[in-house]
Amino acid sequence: MNSLIKLELNRALRNRKFLFFSVLYPSLLFLLIAGSADGTDKVDGTGLTLPTYMMVSMASFGALTAVLMGNSERIAKERESGWVRQLRLTTLPGRGYVLAKTASAAVVSLPSIIVVFVVAAAVKDVRLDAWQWLALTGAIWAGSLVFAALGVAIGYLASGDAVRPITMITYFGLSILGGLWMPTTTFPSWLQDIAKWVPTHAYAALGQAIEQSQAPHAKDIAVLAVFFALFTGGAAWLYRKDTLKA
Amino acid sequence: MTTTAVAFDQVSKAYGEVRAVDGLTLSLHPGQTVALLGPNGAGKSTTLDLLLGLKQADSGSVRLFGTSPREAIVAGRVGAMLQSGGLMDEVTVAEIVGLACDLHPKPYKASDVLARAGITQIADRKVNKLSGGQAQRVRFALATAGDSDLIVLDEPTTGMDVTTRQAFWATMREQADQGRTVLFATHYLEEADAVADRVLVLHRGRLLADGTAAEIKAKAGARRISFDLYETDIDETALRALPFLARLDVSGTTVRIQSSDADATVHALYGLGLYPRNLEVAGLGLEQAFVAITEAEEARTS
């Protein structure tokens, strides 16, 4: 399985377009949004400055891009082309394919998180304690697994031409509703009520809690846990269905 | 080492109303090169999928070397090449072959695998930039990445030119001579005729014929007899009563017969007091034998 992870990784690192969108694009977006804000603007109800707040949002967004965009489309494509069938004729265990995909996505998502942090610290003077940087990296990285599972589920759910629009709608829906592009506090109140239950909102809230030197809220963790169970359960079910159909 | 490479016992698989494989029983032995023939929809691909464990049978059992297909694959005893099986995009030929070697429990050296498949020159090429024939050779390399005891090939020479095709079969013969079992599905009957030492004819999911190419031809009526008669002499009932007749076809004044003993049939023909003109007796190719067998079955069941 390691050789497949290695090959998946090599392939991902060679793909400039994918690297740009998952590693550099979130940082550029961060500079665009936080660039004009001065370090004392506070985001309503958080006590965090705009650059600090947006740093977590964009790091989460970058990780989301890396794990969701790459996997769903590739899995759908490789299922259709028959590569998945060919792999089933090797010693690779059944779930090895999905694990390799997830592992390589996780390797790409790490730099996308760190690049946003470096840019935020260097350009917008975001300052946090050492434990906060580490905790942020860990929380955002680990949290991205929820969306990696979603990417796998979409890859096994959709096929052909449908997979890209479904991924895009999910991706933008999650990004916007979860408040990754703008704080949800700017939403009308009915939309805020919905946004509270969106997994990306809980995901970004993890990081914001750490920035506020708090433990992440139990509710956010619960929301992420429920979605993780839902996505992995769905992915596993769809995977089995696909295997039987072959 | 067990003597049976592949054992199907009363295997059935249906898709809704359609019985793709219907009570199939067969066994293949080491060192055999076996061709799986059948018209489209005969159940060839389903049979291979069941054999490789890609599909589960509704009933019956499929064993490879006395174990389940999956166990045999994990033990490295099976190498397979699927029909237009997808390849991993955006990696090089060397990388994908290297992966197959890494995943095989008894791998060959990747450079040897590339050389044997004749793809050393294109090792640095991206897999998605290959021609049909080149991609087919990469698939072949994946199927022969290690020391497998059974090699399964679904339509292996599709997209290959004649030279490549000949080189390909020479390699396969070598594999069989080393005691491996080679099973291939094809619709090129001349390939089956030239390469296989055993031919399985599948029709509507059932085994219609099983033997050497020569035996299959004999079963179909080994010889084809054709001649012309005067219009007044044509009496289908009398012709149909000829001995060893496998098939009769009268169009106008031309009569075509397939017979398992052409000498006796022709002798009886003269015995009827007929004067056949333009008499020709010819051997049947495997292709005609195949058509004859499947058509006879078609007529019997409809």
Topology:
The complex is a heterodimer of chains A (246) and B (302).
Chain A: H1 2-14, H2 16-34, H3 50-81, H4 83-87, H5 96-123, H6 130-157, H7 163-177, H8 189-195, H9 199-211, H10 218-245
Helix pairs in contact in A: 1-5, 2-3, 2-5, 3-5, 3-6, 3-7, 3-9, 5-6, 6-9, 6-10, 9-10
Chain B: E1 6-15, E2 18-28, E3 33-37, H1 44-51, E4 59-64, H2 69-74, E5 78-81, H3 93-103, H4 110-116, H5 132-143, E6 150-154, H6 162-177, E7 181-185, H7 189-195, E8 198-203, E9 206-211, H8 213-219, E10 223-228, H9 236-240, E11 245-251, E12 254-259, H10 262-271, E13 277-283, H11 286-301
Parallel strand pairs in B: 3-7, 3-8, 5-6, 6-7
Antiparallel strand pairs in B: 1-2, 1-4, 8-9, 10-12, 10-13, 11-12
Helix pairs in contact in B: 3-4, 3-5, 8-11
Keywords (chain A): Antibiotic resistance, Membrane, Transmembrane, Transmembrane helix
Subcellular location (chain A): Membrane
Membrane topology (chain A): Multi-pass membrane protein
Could you tell me the number of beta strands of chain B? 13
Cα end-to-end separation of chain A: 21 Å
Class of secondary structure makeup of chain B: alpha/beta
Distance between the termini of chain B: 44 Å
Helix share, percent of chain A: over 70%
Helix-and-strand structural type of chain A: mainly alpha
Low-confidence regions of chain A: none
Most strands sheet of chain B: 6 strands, mixed
The overall pLDDT of chain A, averaged over residues, is: 88
Keywords (chain A): Antibiotic resistance, Membrane, Transmembrane, Transmembrane helix
Protein name (chain A): ABC transporter permease
Membrane topology (chain A): Multi-pass membrane protein
InterPro entries (chain A): ABC2_TM (IPR013525), ABC_2_transport (IPR000412), Nod_factor_ABC_transporter (IPR051784)
